Fold this protein.
Amino acid sequence: MSAIGKLSTFTLLSSTALSGLMALPAIAQDSEASDIALEEIVVTASRRAERIQDIPYNISAVSGARIEDAKMLDSAELLRSVSGVAIVDRGPRNAGAVNSIRIRGLNVDGSALGDYATSAAATVSTYLNDTPMFANLLIKDLERVEVLRGPQGTLYGSGALGGTVRYITRKPDFDGFSGHVSASLSSVKGSESLGWATDLVANVPLGDTLAFRFAGTRMDYPGLTDYVNVYELDANGVPVAPNGILDPTASFKSVEDADTYDVWFGRASLRWKPSDSFDVTATYTRQSDDMGGRRAQTVGRDGFGNEYGKYEVGSVQLEPADSDVEMGALEATIDLGFATLTSSTSYYEHEGSSISENTGFYAQNGWLAWYYNYPRPMATAARTYEDKAFIEELRLVSNSDGPLQYVFGLYYQDQDRLATQESFLVGAKAYVDALYGYDVSWITGDQDFHYILDENFKQKAAYGELTYAFSDKIDVTVGARYFKNESTSDTFMALPFWTGLFPELESTFETEEDKMLFKANLTYHLDDDNLVYGTWSQGYRRGGANGVPTTGYYAEDAGWLTYDADTVDNFELGIKGMRGSTRYTVSLFYVDWSDPQLNTSTPNWGFFAVQNGSKATTKGVEVELDGYLSETLHYTVGYAFADAELSEDFFSPTGALIAEDGARLPGSPRHMFNVALDHTYEISDTLTLTSRLDGYVQSSTRNAIGTSPKFDRTLPGYGIFNGSMTLTRGNVDLTLWVKNIFNAEGVSAVFKKAYMGTRPSEGYYGNGSKEQIALPRAFGLSATYRF
């Protein structure tokens, strides 16, 4: 079907659906609680402060107060509370390495991908204030979180294919000294210990024009995953040989609650506002995480025939990880009268490392018995990643009340990304020497793989949006963004295990690209609080160079040298607004995705690489309601349907079929449902009880694109429900909370047996296959004192 035909079909379906949806405002107005005023939500997604119901596209906002009151633990829980947002929840160990947010089904990467930072940008961009960055930062002391659905290419640039998530921090204020201290204890199913966390937030005015704000958190959560067949190691970190190094027996132990999570977090802000027309804020954020292992479970048996239990992992080694993030930003605004000029200057550096169990991977490829002939195999992959960038953005936003409004901006980013992997078959050298009775010169040591991928991306862009009000009822917005990207990729690879057998490789490749993106929107205002809109918008991700060799010993096909930017065309119709005590949004969308980027590896030598597919499409509907059922009972309800699939066969650069036309895109459920209720009860003049219940339900997902027996699997749908009760007296809150009330497994990613499982014939008696699961049922008690 042609693009015009698709658009015509979409328009027909949309207009039919919207004729029914137009009745929503009237239905909302008839609510028994129609006389209760909803709290006004102001967002800055359009780069100016506006009521959320006045934004002519689908956007949600979660207030910082709601995050704190519900005792949300992480971004995964937060995003599950937003209609139409899916998240691959791999637990703290992998939450910061790869952005796994899915909006409108736009994803082709496998769900288990997450042990190393990928070259391709995510399909959903994330911002901390005005800084585009991704990290597993704690959701502490936030003003709000804004979730923009659909491509945001004109205002938010690369990576905003499916949407944008903005974390807006609270600024220092000049009204007085204030803040809070809090502490919590928690217990999670499967763990033998208690977790604890403490928070301190302080706002300190330093005069009429200067204020300082600090937020700090210390967390120490015990693990729940038991690594039940870990090798006993000697003083050199080599598996113990209880009957001598040449004997095939090994010694195993069980490590309980291995996936510990330890966090230090701090954010300091200094704000200076010498006049009503000038405002500048400097912010520094730092977070350090240490993780003891994966939150996962192995299903099946080990090499001895023993069946794994719940929350047990079969890796023969522990898999710790750590990460460190720091970000500094200087944001200044000048009111010029006719417009506001904003300068945002920022830098960030995000780095981490991890140890991964690779023995199952070696075993399934038949390498252990044939290549190494080593009886106690422990293949260790030591990985690191680093992402750092400098960003400057200048933005001019009109202030006039006239019919013409505008936003113009200039953007510059210089980003460096580094990924490394060093693999070791621990103890192999000592075993071979003992087997031959002398120092075997053709074996260099235990290391069998060394890989470094060093990338630089420079991006320059100019963008703008113009909105013209033809009347009190009709607005038209047009927008465009021009970008120019330059990228360099340097690759180093060595296979040092066999002396002199394989040459070292150093390969460099550079590429450039430039493109224009466009946006058009028509808005019809039904009245001051309700509108209907239609939008065509484009989004993109930058392309780049893979830096793989095309000649010599490690030659790959030249098709792997570069990957192109991928783009989407989004067609959307919606109605939104507020009637009485109900705020509502309904949108219908159809998205054409060209050249989707897949993070993968080359077929000959396994270089990390990105490749382009051909076409994919997503279409669906999103509904969100927010209101009051009575004066004391508030609710939000959301539903989203997204049918995301390939619309053409997906081939590799060498012509191999990856997936066929019609294949479902991975990690994206067709159906998602959200609900939240909170009830306030005045026990007395000084005592208030607030009860909360929220839930998220999703249908099944695919683990990977295509039908590969190593990766493909249907992951069942699940539902996660949380609840809390808060007793408030004066400045003191006491909250009893529970997460995942019904203890759903919430499996959202899998390493399959065919990829990482046990194989005694190769000497591997562990089992590296695993399901990555949501946080099991957890109870907590939190106390807060506000001052």
Notes: The two ends are 63 Å apart (CA to CA).
